[in-house]
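Quick illustration, no need to memorize.
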Amino acid sequence: MNRRIGWAIAAIAVALPNVVPHARPAAPGDVSCGLGLPPGAPGFAEARAQQALEAKTNGYLKVCEANLERYRIAFRPSAPIMADLSFQPVNLSGTRFADFKSLGAMIEPDNTPHTRLYRGFLMPDGHNVTLFEQDMSVDGTRSWRAPEDEPERINGMPARLSVFQAPSGNAISHLSWVERRRAYELWIDANVVATALRQQLFALAASLPPSVPACPNEVPPKPARIGADGFPADEPMLITLTQAEIDGMSDRSKKPCK
């Protein structure tokens, strides 16, 4: 099963179990359910503006319980998963994660290059924390996000904190950022607004050591070309491609490390 977390990054889509369909935008005082209107649809800009106002006013977005389910991972024993990766995950032994109980790991079944890894942890206070990382040097993906959507900082790197809470009181606080060619997401099953957990979440992110790309000599993709809708536009297809480039497009696991 796959599901999508939309963290307002255009060119990276992080898959998680159970895709939630697009739904109507939430009215003031209502809860958002689903992914909302797709870019370019009538009312998309207004819906985004309403969400931005709600997040600024309350510090979080009100969502339905199904939206939180997308962040709950079915972890498996770590050893076989960690042995089947095409990149080196960051070492957590010298970080604050070392004080937590490991809940296991998970990779997405459709991620053939095995470049996206989830690791789960149980904090001493009972909260669950999930760390996601993706080595974009292996699968050739690129990321883009408008600077105004990344007001936070993780060791000087632009970051975004998104907080979602259901009427039941269940919540997710989701932090995302990119360090060179490594994309990170870190989330906790709590609303960290105006609590000490916010500082703990940022401290966890800041404790991660620098990543080591699996393809250190990779020629990074060109910067995203932004379309009229404010999102990255697809690049025109090249007329001439090498066999290695063709293989890499159909199967990211065959993308050569230059």
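The CA atoms of residues 100 and 124 lie 7 Å apart.
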